[in-house]
Amino acid sequence: MKAISRTLTRAVVVALAAAIAACASNDEKKEDTDPVELVDINATVELREVWSENIGDIDTKRYAMLQPAIGAGRIVAASSDGEVQALDRATGRRQWKVDLDVPISGGVGVGLNLAVVSDYRGRVVALDLNDGSELWSHQLTSEVVAAPAVGAGVVVVQSVDGKLVGLDATDGTERWSHSTTLPVLTLRGTAAPVITAGLVFAGLDNGKLIALDARDGIPRWEQRVAIPQGSAELERVVDIDGSPVVRGDLVFAASYQGRVVALSREDGRGLWARDASTHHSVAVGAGNVYLSDAGGSVYAYNVGSGQIVWSNNDLLRRELSGPAYFGDVLVVGDLEGYLHAIDPTTGQIIGREQIDGDPVRIPMVVDGDLLFALSDDGELVALRLERRQ
């Protein structure tokens, strides 16, 4: 649990918010809360499976978001029961596997020849990316449920008690720490920090985005993405649980019950902001910023102006994953294990592939010509995009 706040899973928060807003009859409520049925599409692209491997249990009751990570031609994945393994990204052939004997809650961060995971007790473990041998571990003050960021000589971890901690990548000693006061009520989860150009970018549970110097943790700037609204604590939840996305001189972020924004990477100055509600990261590509909102709509915003280019409501209430820009299409996963390929220009669904019967809600990973998706059942699938003739 977070030290000074109460946490709710995303599903519970969304359901409670819907209940507060509901004013229709029982029949109307049922209709409004059922996931929409999928309809036939004119598929022009195919997400073709290259390989798949079950990596083990994912703890859905605790909303584990064990996103895999790519490094040195490997994809490293962790299961909730403590197993970490590296697979060849192209073939899926296992290169190494270790069992840490503790439930893993946050991972995986890859960089500087390290693969880093963490557990529910707040222990951060760094493994050698080449063979999986343990190099060091460090005990934090609270659990970690997001992937660490690795780069610029540090491993940066955000824990659920509102702390960002920078650990020396060579031995795990603490270099710096930054604390944030948490709201009374927050979503279950935290945003994974991002390291780029010597800066650490992190979304916070209070609706702010912060940039820190990776070397010493000194704040460079802090900007509010969302402003809490309403009198009820549930209405004032504005967590940023999706990782910031850095593209060129801009940083993009979005919050629950708040906004999606484009900020200057250098000083945090706002370029544009639009009302939005999501607990995922956005995606960027083809001149747009893409967002799947809490209700199941998908939006495209112009990168420069923030104007809505299109919206898609064909997947309402299907508990969408965050979007991934892959090749020249946008991909989102849903509660039945489907991946939907969307035309980034028109917003139309142009391809569909079911990779499992369980939800796909963990952030997908794009690496070159491959898309990696991990289901709640632990099915890790590598897919390639192909155009239909």
From TrEMBL:
Instruction: Provide the Gene Ontology terms for cellular component.
Output: cell outer membrane
Which superkingdom?
Answer: Bacteria
Instruction: Give the keywords, sorted.
Output: Cell outer membrane, Lipoprotein, Membrane, Palmitate, Signal
Its localization reads: Cell outer membrane
The UniProt entry, under Gene3D superfamilies, shows: YVTN repeat-like/Quinoprotein amine dehydrogenase
> What's the protein's topology in the membrane?
Lipid-anchor
For this protein, the record's PROSITE patterns field holds:
PROKAR_LIPOPROTEIN
A single Gene Ontology biological process assigned to it is: protein insertion into membrane
Q: From the UniProt annotation, give the residues forming the signal peptide.
A: 1-24
Q: Pfam family example for this protein?
A: PQQ_2
Q: What is its main location?
A: membrane
Domain Pyrrolo-quinoline quinone repeat, first and last residues per copy: 81-312
Q: Which InterPro entries match?
A: BamB, PQQ_b-propeller_rpt, PQQ_rpt_dom, Quinoprotein_ADH-like_sf, WD40/YVTN_repeat-like_dom_sf
Q: What does this protein do?
A: Part of the outer membrane protein assembly complex, which is involved in assembly and insertion of beta-barrel proteins into the outer membrane.
Q: Which family does it belong to?
A: Belongs to the BamB family.
Description of how the protein assembles with itself and partners: Part of the Bam complex.
- The protein, known as: Outer membrane protein assembly factor BamB
The major lineage groups are: Bacteria, Pseudomonadati, Pseudomonadota, Gammaproteobacteria, Cellvibrionales
UniProt lists the gene as bamB
